[in-house]
Amino acid sequence: MAAATDIWQAASPRRRCSAARRPRRKDVAAGSPETESEADSGVVLRRLREAGEDLLISDFWSSALETIGGCLRKHLEQLKTSVGTLSDTLGNLYLDPSPEESDVAPDSIPRETLVVGTCHWKCVCYGIGNFATCVIARNQLTFLLLFLEKCQIPRSHCLVYDPLFSQLEIATLNALGVAVLSENEEGKRSICGNPTIFYMLHCGTALYNNLLWSNWSVDALSKMIIIGNSFKGLEERLLTRILQKNYPYIAKILKGLEELELPQTSQYMDIFNDTSIHWFPVQKLKLLSTDTWVFQEEPDYQDCEDLEIIRNKMKGPSAADVNSR
Known about the structure:
Layout: H1 33-56, H2 59-83, H3 86-89, E1 92-93, E2 115-116, E3 122-126, H4 135-151, E4 158-161, H5 167-176, E5 179-180, E6 196-200, H6 205-214, H7 218-221, E7 224-229, H8 231-237, H9 240-246, H10 248-253, E8 258-261, H11 269-272, E9 275-279, H12 282-287, H13 290-294, H14 319-323
Parallel strand pairs: 3-4, 3-6, 4-5, 6-7
Antiparallel strand pairs: 1-2, 7-9, 8-9
Helix pairs in contact: 1-4, 1-5
């Protein structure tokens, strides 16, 4: 297993279709905007690496992995039942330390992984925030990158979007090898049959409601995992009539999911507070009334106050077109 610092190295450049040619390094004069941008990106990568080193040795990291691992075990067994052969689809789940665990260097990622083998997981991250300047956002991104490594999900299989990303942050994410979406989907992404983990910490409630609407079927929901704001917490904080009127898909799915809260530690209290991992057991989904699935009206939030998400005001192809990529 590669050392932990390898996660923060720039990935090999991906081929891009562009009429403009990026200037070669030798063509760029010292002190130019290009070199300044590269220097800034280097600072951000260094801060991410430092945050990763702190996270790896924290009690929160080991406890969070144990919580998430318990959920993944159940979810993978569900997928095994639905497709027949787990190894053909997602690989084998393995959470026990390898025999060589005692030989791992202190700066290495522990050799136990959440998922190994041929794995077709995809990951979508919404609303991570301005990680170049915000410590909370930077730690949340750090957790995501380490989580991808643990689950052996290639970074190229992780889609990331926040409407507030700066050009520096987009360049940094590209250097890390994750895919940055170019359009604000407002969370309206269909998984198209692919088992997908959505990483959505501290996002607006409408984003979760939109995501559920886009995957409103037993088959799709049973293939999804959401790491984000506690749905139980939403139920407790919002009046029932407000939840049912403004966020009907969240209201309807509360009896069809299982939720595990991520552990709370003082070091990461402000970063992962109110965060849970959610999955949707088939047996629970099938117990929901038929009327639950008949209602499939697209959310519009015209009468909703304090929406807490940035709407897509651009004209052109819809978010559904992006999902086909």
